[in-house]
């Protein structure tokens, strides 16, 4: 499989996972968004860093 196919698979999976919350519980998603808006920049950056490192760890563990 070509590298771009893996990229498209990853993008598709990301969109599926991102769409689960608004589909199942839009009200809860709005509540979470309000809480995120109130966070300071440092907390958002730390959350982003943790998400990126978690993603990299998963990619490292499942690499072919």
Report on the structure:
- With 64 residues, the protein is an all-alpha fold.
- The protein has a domain of 40 residues.
- The protein is 88% helix and 0% strand.
- It has three helices and no strands.
- Helix 1 crosses helix 2.
- It is flat and about 40 Å long.
- The termini are close together.
- 0% of the residues are buried.
- InterPro entries: DUF2065 (IPR019201).
- Keywords: Membrane, Transmembrane, Transmembrane helix.
Q: First CA to last CA: what distance? A: 11 Å
Kindly state the number of beta strands. Answer: 0
Strand content: under 5%
Question: How much helix, percentage-wise, in residues?
Answer: over 70%
Query: Would you tell me the structural class of the helices and strands?
Result: mainly alpha
Biggest sheet descriptor: none
Question: Total helix count?
Answer: 3
Which key features would you list for this structure?
single chain, flat, 64 residues, mainly alpha
Give a brief outline of the structure.
The chain is mostly helical.
Q: What is the secondary structure topology, with strand pairs?
A:
Elements: H1 3-24, H2 26-37, H3 41-62
């Amino acid at each position: 499989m070509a590298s771009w196919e893996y990229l498209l698979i990853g993008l598709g999976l990301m969109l599926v996972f991102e769409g689960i919350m608004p589909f199942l519980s839009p009200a809860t998603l709005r509540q979470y968004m309000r809480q995120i808006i109130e966070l300071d920049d440092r907390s958002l950056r730390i959350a982003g860093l943790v998400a990126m490192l978690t993603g990299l760890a998963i990619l490292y563990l499942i690499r072919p």
